[in-house]
Amino acid sequence: MTSRTDDIRLGADIGGTFTDIALDVRGTMFSTKVLTNYAAPEQAILDGIAIVIHDAGISPSEIGIIIHGTTLATNALIERRGAKTALITTEGFRDVIEMRTENRFEQYDLSLQLPTPLIPREDRFTVKGRIGAEGQELQPLDEAALEEIADRIAAGGFGSVAIGFIHAYANPDHERRAREILSGKLSIPISISAEVSPQMREFERFNTVCANAYVRPQMADYLARLQTRLKDMGADCPVFMIHSGGGLISVETASEFPVRLVESGPAGGAIFAADIARRFGLEKVVSYDMGGTTAKICLIEDYAPRTARTFEVARTYRFSKGSGMPISIPVIEMIEIGAGGGSIAWVDAMGRIQTGPESAGSEPGPACYGRGGKRPAITDADLVLGKLDPHNFAGGAIRLDTAASEQAILRDVGERLSLDAMSTAFGICEVVDENMANAARVHAVENGKNISDNLMIAFGGAAPLHAARLCEKLGIDRCIVPRGAGVGSAIGFLKAPFGYEALASKLTRLSRFKPAEVNTLLADLKASAESFVRTGASGRIVCEITAFMRYAGQGWEIPVPLADEPFGDDAVAKLKALFEENYQRFFGRAIEGLDGLEIEIVTWSVKATDIRPAVARHDLTTGKKTSEPTTTRSVFDPVSGAQRSYGILERDTLCAGDRVAGPAVIVERETSTVVTTSFDAVIQSDGAILLIRKGSQA
Fold this sequence. Notes:
By secondary structure, the protein is an alpha/beta fold. The protein is built from 16 helices and 36 strands. The strands form nine sheets. Strands 13, 14, 15, 20, 23, 24, 29, 32, 35 and 36 form a ten-stranded mixed sheet that branches. The longest helix has 32 residues, at 202-233. The termini are far apart. The model has no long low-confidence stretch (mean pLDDT 90).
């Protein structure tokens, strides 16, 4: 048997429609897309691995490492397919996850719909015992009551337990003792908030530990099955998971804290885009990731995606912050909308075309797949418009039925609006593209940025089909479609560092700052973060220290990056200066002239990562040699509003420096890049496609 080697790495990304596989064999990439198997998600990974190792001419035993990301945890939360979970909390706080923050995210909506709590009221149990905000015990834990609760949980058929006590972030002793008592009587997983999300704000913390407990049995079972079947296949190599913050963690950690995987797939895409930005020296980038189920947009500055400490899943209102389920974990910050290739098109009560968030997924899929889907999806519209070749979709693995797409589009949308199939398909795609453009504008404005200042990096199976039109709407002059764009997130997994972010909330005013205590706290956080990283990395580790600070009385805080060194006697003056500098960067000026206005630190963060190899730098080229298409196809052109003859070129036949004049379609196995009449395309030295707006100074 051939022994495995660490220079053969495989990334596997399970999406809502497709499972993407990317195999890097000593610098040569092999990739494929297979339809996601909902009943047995690991089967799609095994099927994809079989394809790429056959193409590469290697055996499963030669794979040195597998890096995996998945939307399974996200889908379980959205679709409410998790375990029957019990919540144990402090007496008097039973309804925190239902009362939320009492914020009305749509102030004038009389029919406001709040997300239903993951855990119904009858499955929430309370116990006496109280920890104060400073971490002091105010009331001892009622251990006898916990014994009785354990008996009720054992008799109730529960599959998981979440424990969330008030101020457990400041002192976890009560939560740990409660877990110890319950473990003596229960054989089901128990999650405590002090380990899952040791941060202030009880609603977010309780909701996060509930989400972790809710998906934990399902994810642990899936990951165990995956490892077993990989070994049976002959791939007896380490398996690591990518988490929402963009780093790699062990399968064991992922099984214990599966809520950290909620945004793992999109995180891989952001890392992929950041790697492309670093390769070409691009400091301002917007990544655009459109797959089969959703589209994600992320701002990348100085070669790093923006990050946050909390995000929402399952929003009941698409763009309304506060309408979803808050998850309080480190995450790459992006905006996500239900606009993938499988998103369903429909007509609302006002006669307007709408798309998503409902998706046809892989089962039954869009109407053109011929797998039982009858409702029109965005892929159906793209097919009718001529963007896709029905005989060469997914490298010919899936034959598309154009007549079925036309029928579905007319029945559900066109006939209601008295439009023909072509006009209806154009309307569907315009709505999709405008929704994504609006999402990008909103995301940029919320971060104080101008979206048109950025270069776009487009990837995912559907993004290259829509990228040029999206750039037209956003005023963006340049867009890169990288090589391997169709499986971009899976390739991003291979670029991800081993990394983990440890957090701890400890409210401290600068007037009462004690350097020795804080140094001890940070040392503990560094030890915790580095221990996770050491499960997969043996080289040098670097730590990023961040203090989340605010003026006393403010509701939210800003991140203040700090040097990785112990605090000394001048710590207060340095922290004050750094806070005011960052506050001015965020809001234009620091607050001055108010006597006694205190500055306080709310949360400390330590992010540990291993050092990744430097990437080879490339210069963008505008091309000199014009490449003429050998064939053409009729494609609906959004600029002229009519069908035009588009040149069709195979990506593999193009060389660095070749320039393709739009309109054209550049075809490859996992996707196609539509070059509208407003753009030309130039092949770069690394094989990437650069779309350049005609007449621009790019």
